[in-house]
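Weekly modeling sync, notes
Attendees: S.R. (lead), two postdocs, one rotation student

Agenda item 3: backlog of single-chain predictions. S.R. asked that every request posted to the team notebook include the full sequence so nobody has to chase files. The rotation student volunteered to paste the first one in as an example of the format we agreed on. Action items at the bottom.

Example entry:
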Amino acid sequence: MRPEPRVWVKWGKFEEEHSKLEKACEVFQTALGFYGDDEEQIEKAQVVFSVFAKMETRPKEYEHARVIYKRGVGHQDMWSIVNEDINMRSETPGTRKY
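Predicted structure, as returned to the notebook:
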C-alpha cells in the first residue's frame, strides 16, 4: 500500500512550519522517489510536486523550484533531478545547503 500524496504533503508542511526546511525538503524528495517514474504514479504525486516547489520559492530558492516543476511536467528520471539539484546547489552561491 502506498501512502496518499496528502500524507506526504502534511508531513512536509509540518516540518516547514517548525522551521525544519532541510527535513521538509527530505520528506518531499523521499515522497517523489517513492512514487518513482511510472506515469500513473507521477500524475498521482502532482500535489507533492506543487507543494514542494512552492515551499522552495518562500526562501527564494527559485532555481530549485524550477527543477521540481520540470520534474513534475517533464517526467524526468528522479536520479537526474537529484544530481542536477546537488550540482546546482554546489555551484550557486547563496543557495541553502543541506
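Discussion: group reviewed the output briefly. Residues 5-91 form one domain.
Action items: rotation student to repeat for the remaining queue; S.R. to check formatting next week.
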